[in-house]
Design goal:
mainly beta; four-stranded mixed β-sheet
């Protein structure tokens, strides 16, 4: 009885959508530098990759969410969720999407988190163009001080 050759399944490469990283910053982020004995320079740690779920919604404005005071936290998003992506231990994620503008969120506990806006008050917007992979980064800095 002969053994059949093993099949390899190739995952299709995403060529249109969003590719990026989710980073977490915490602690004192002030740009101070000091020199410890032995000449080692100290300052804020580099952001760390965050393994999490990225929630992708239709382009969402401040009027389409329930916001916690003036914080970057949201309890409800009233636009359509179109996809999710999972970032790995380095924070890297990639998701295939149709051309358009999307808002990206992550969750902290039971709340959504996004801390950037454009001039039209769209929350953390990213635009996908036909046959292009848009690069982005999400920085979760709710436990950092500046």
């Amino acid at each position: 009885m002969a053994c059949s050759p093993a099949r390899t399944v190739q995952t299709p490469v995403i060529q249109q959508g969003i590719s990026g990283f989710v980073y977490q910053e915490s602690g004192n982020r002030m740009p101070m530098k000091s020199v410890e004995p032995g000449g080692k320079s100290t300052g804020p740690d580099l952001p760390k990759g965050l393994s999490t779920t990225v929630y992708i919604y239709e382009a969402t404005s401040l009027g389409q969410v329930s916001r916690v005071d003036v914080s970057p936290f949201y309890t409800a998003i009233r636009t359509k969720q179109v996809a999710t992506a999972h970032s790995d231990s380095t924070g890297a994620f990639t998701v295939g999407l149709a051309p358009g503008t999307y808002s990206l969120f992550v969750k902290q506990g039971d709340r959504f988190y996004a801390n950037s806006f454009d001039s039209n008050n769209l929350i953390n917007p990213v635009t996908v163009e036909k046959d292009r992979l848009t690069r982005t980064k999400i920085i979760v800095n709710s436990s950092a001080t500046y």
